[in-house]
Amino acid sequence: MIATSLLIKMGIAGLFAGLIAVATTPFVKALALRFGVIREVRGRDSHDHPIPLWGGLAMVAGFLITVLLLRPLAGQELTVAVGRGEHPILGILLGASLVAAVGLLDDKGDLKPWQQMLSLLVGGLIAALLGARIGGVTNPFAGTGSGYTAQNYIELPFALSVLVTMVWIFLVAKTFDFLDGLDGLAAGVCAIAATTMGLMAAARGDVAVALMAAALAGACVGFLRHNYNPASIFMGTVGAQFLGFVLASLAVVGAFKIPAAISIVIPLLVLGVPVFDGLYVVGRRMVLRQKATVADRTHIHHRLRDRGMSVKQAVWAIYGLTATCCVAALALAWMWAR
Prior knowledge:
The protein has 338 residues and is an all-alpha fold. It has helices at 4-34, 56-68, 71-74, 88-109, 113-129, 158-179, 185-204, 207-227, 236-253, 265-270, 272-287, 300-306, 311-337; strands at residues 38-39, 51-52, 136-138, 153-155.
């Protein structure tokens, strides 16, 4: 059962982040135009004229400013206890900020793929070292219980825990970057996934995670005011990889902490659309012996468009698929908690 007071606080956090994103997007657009950060029309794109980038900065601002002001809402220090001297939330914020900064540079001058990859891995390393890491996995073959025990929980060695976390964060952040191919697509999918994570965290009483998820969802909805088709600005790498990084990190300190065998299934369901789309595309390129970093038109949104769907129809079809996966994740979590 979710406390009504926490839902109200989540609503306030989401509204505040959304208002910041809405208000700052025009300024970000002007900044992008001034510095010539423009997405020209490419063969695989759906827009027919140049569109400014850097829109993700508005979501970054909405999320970070709201999180930094969340302490009065939470009524406690915004932290998730893991170990002595560790501060997972700080790790998430620092890692996400690094990824956003590198994303800004990539939007301006197209960094090499390895430079993008390095920023995601280093950001994940920062988050993991400060406590936002996958400490272990639930043993699906052990008996169920009400919490973590030596019988139902397999703790990972520290180095392996950090490595697994880095790979997870990299995977989600990069696949979100892949998903950002239609007006409003990535922001809408992120809003749905973040809302789901927030509700799960609220049901467990994880105030910090619930409020951060609500802030992320609110920032995405606010940005959609300018990014929904026909978009006047794109989020760019700075936005797509930032959203993926934060979602993956929230799953680490939230959904992965569910003491049940479904703790692995739930985050994969919530983030299933971008993750499995990205794995499909990369796997297909490997089978065909193509470079994994070379863009093409094999992503789910491209395939829907090639079947004759309009931009809005394709976006809403993917929204619906994401929502279905998230409802399934919520149902699994609720059934297991009974």
